[in-house]
Write a structure and sequence with these properties.
With 223 residues, this protein is mostly helical. The protein has one domain. It contains seven helices and no strands. Helix 2 packs across helix 5, helix 2 crosses helix 7 and helix 3 packs across helix 5. The longest helix has 32 residues. The structure holds zinc ion. The site of zinc ion (ZN) has 6 residues, from helix 3 and helix 5.
Length: 223
C-alpha cells in the first residue's frame, strides 16, 4: 500500500502527465515516463523493424532475451541508484548517449570474445550471435521512448540526461520513491497503464509473426 505522505510526495511532480492516470503514477517528470512493459513493447517493435529492413531473422527465442534486458537496462541502473542517493537523478548515467555507446560496445566485445571461445552449449553460441544487435536495439529504444514525451511537449531541457556527464541530468521528485513501489502501484491497476495501445500492438505483431513462422512459407531460422 502506498502511504499518504508518499502520495503527497508523488503528487508534487504530477503536473503535465496524462490526466487519466492515477495521481500516484504521475510521478516521474513532465511529461510522463514510460513504464517497463511499454519499453519492452517499444523495443520489440524496433527489433521487428530492424529485422525487416536488414532482412535478418525476426526476433524470437534467444534474441528476445538480450533485447528485453537492453530495453530495461537504463532504468535498472539509474532508478535504484537515484533512490539510494548514489546518483542525483533517475535518468542520468545509464541514460546518457555516451555511456550507451560504451556499454553497447562492451556487450558487443564480450559477445564476440565468448563466441570465439566456441562455447560448449549451442544456445550460448546462438546468444553470442544475436546479443550485440538485440541488446543495442533494446537499449537505444529505451532512450528514444523516454525522450518522446519531452520532445512532444517541447520540454527540451528535460533531455539533458542524454548528454550526461557534459550536461547536468534533470531531477525528478519521483526518485524519492522506490521504483518497485511505483511499478507495483501501476500494475495493481492494469487498466490505467499509459502504454496499453503500444503493448497490445506489440503483442498482436508478436502473435502474427509466430503464426506466420509456423504456417507460412519456409524461411531462415529465427534468432
Ligand atoms: Zn528510463
Amino acid at each position: 500500500m502506498i502511504g499518504s505522505s508518499m502520495r503527497r510526495r508523488l503528487s508534487r511532480s504530477a503536473a503535465g502527465c496524462d490526466p487519466k492516470l492515477p495521481q500516484f503514477i504521475r510521478v516521474h517528470d513532465s511529461p510522463c515516463s514510460v513504464f517497463p512493459l511499454g519499453h519492452l513493447a517499444f523495443a520489440y517493435l524496433w527489433y521487428v523493424a530492424y529485422a525487416a529492413l536488414t532482412r535478418r531473422p525476426l526476433p524470437a527465442r534467444w534474441a528476445l532475451v538480450p533485447m528485453a534486458i537492453g530495453s530495461q537496462f537504463p532504468d535498472l541502473i539509474d532508478k535504484p541508484l537515484a533512490y539510494y542517493g548514489v546518483l542525483a537523478s533517475g535518468r542520468s548515467v545509464a541514460h546518457s548517449l555516451l555511456i550507451t555507446v560504451l556499454i553497447a560496445g562492451l556487450v558487443t566485445w564480450g559477445a564476440h570474445v565468448l563466441h570465439r571461445w566456441r562455447p560448449a552449449h549451442r544456445w550460448v553460441g546462438r546468444l553470442c550471435v544475436v546479443t550485440p544487435a538485440a541488446f543495442s536495439i533494446g537499449y537505444l529504444s529505451h532512450l528514444v521512448g523516454d525522450s518522446l514525451g519531452p520532445l512532444r511537449a517541447g520540454a527540451y531541457d528535460s533531455l539533458t540526461y542524454l548528454g550526461w556527464p557534459l550536461l547536468a541530468a534533470p531531477r525528478y521528485a519521483g526518485d524519492s520513491v522506490a521504483p518497485w513501489i511505483r511499478i507495483l502501484e501501476l500494475y495493481r491497476q492494469s487498466g490505467t497503464h499509459p502504454e496499453r495501445p503500444l503493448i497490445v500492438t506489440a503483442l498482436l505483431v508478436f502473435i502474427s509473426l509466430r503464426v506466420w513462422a509456423r504456417f507460412g512459407p519456409p524461411r531462415p531460422a529465427d534468432g
